[in-house]
Amino acid sequence: MNKLLLTLGVSALSPLTMAKPVIVTSIQPVSMVVAAITGDRAEIEQIVSSTASPHDFALRPSDLRKIAQADTVVWVGESLESFLEKPLENAGKEASSIEWLALDGMSLRDFGEEHHDEHAGHDDHDEHAGHDDHDEHAGHDDHDEHAGHDDHDEHAGHDDHDEHGGHDDHDEHVGHEGHHHDGVDPHVWLSPDNAKVLARAVTKRLASLDADNAKYYQANLAKFEQGLTTQDATIRAALNKVNKVPYIVFHDGYSYFEEHYALNHAGEVTVSPERKPGAKKVAELRHEIEEHKVQCVFSEPQFSPAIVNTLLEGTKVKTARLDPLGSDIKLDMNAYFNFMNSLSDQFLSCLG
């Protein structure tokens, strides 16, 4: 009888002892960096699907439960994911969350900064200064309204997410209270250096949550950093062959990547992807294409390429797709490496 009770007791406790930390992430690029560290020792729950936009997103009740039950929420920051600010506060998760933009060691850029000194003729970027429409991702036209959030006028639907059991807060991340990044370009995942900063913060957090696997997480961090260093050199060598070729992007959301690899950004189709450029802007872009001898205009998979096709009608300028979210990248430990390789290949396909 005693043996039976002991067996039942061990069986009842085993799910608790085997429970994995639950990390809730905001968007796909965040999940990619987190996955490089977690491996199979933690669960990742992503809020915004890889084909949706963080700009006009609305949380569902299941997302709010996910936030409340998470060990840690990892997000880019209020300037990109404003829909998370109130829910994090309401759930008491601000101190235990990791806000990428607020981490020490980050290299941040403001919208409106000149891209590169060596890129001649790029003095017409003043239309970006301080713009607060960081809606680079997502043309999804099926945005149902979702209940359960305060003061958010975002409207985007997304796939269902299962909820996980409750977990206590663990304060490891420097609090992001008071960290306002108005005018800061939030596309920080496009810099391998910034990816390393987040990976270190995630490693520290996981080690505090799951001390038994601390060495595993630290080994994954070392592997990630070494892999990024090697990959960075390979990508740089490839892009150096085309870094004088002028191009236009769909929107000004690639500056971290462009700055890091010294690419020749000549302009963008639109400041905000949800605003179609008018006839005047199209005329200006056509002039820019001729003046700078632009060889490629990039579109994005989240938006219709119609405006790009219209812009290039009658010209011999090439076009290709850039995906700033890596929406087709499988989420595993190599996801961030695969994303950066994919983005590099997308540039090379049109500039080479």
TrEMBL record:
It is found in: Periplasm. Its main location: periplasm. Belongs to the bacterial solute-binding protein 9 family. Part of the ATP-binding cassette (ABC) transport system ZnuABC involved in zinc import. Binds zinc with high affinity and specificity and delivers it to the membrane permease for translocation into the cytoplasm. It comes from Marinomonas transparens. One of its GO terms (molecular function) is metal ion binding. Gene3D superfamilies: Nitrogenase molybdenum iron protein domain. Residues 114-185 have a biased composition (Basic and acidic residues). Residues 114-188 are annotated as: Disordered. GO terms for cellular component: periplasmic space. Keywords: Disulfide bond, Ion transport, Metal-binding, Periplasm, Signal, Transport, Zinc, Zinc transport. This is High-affinity zinc uptake system protein ZnuA. One of its GO terms (biological process) is zinc ion transport. Residues 1-19 form the signal peptide.
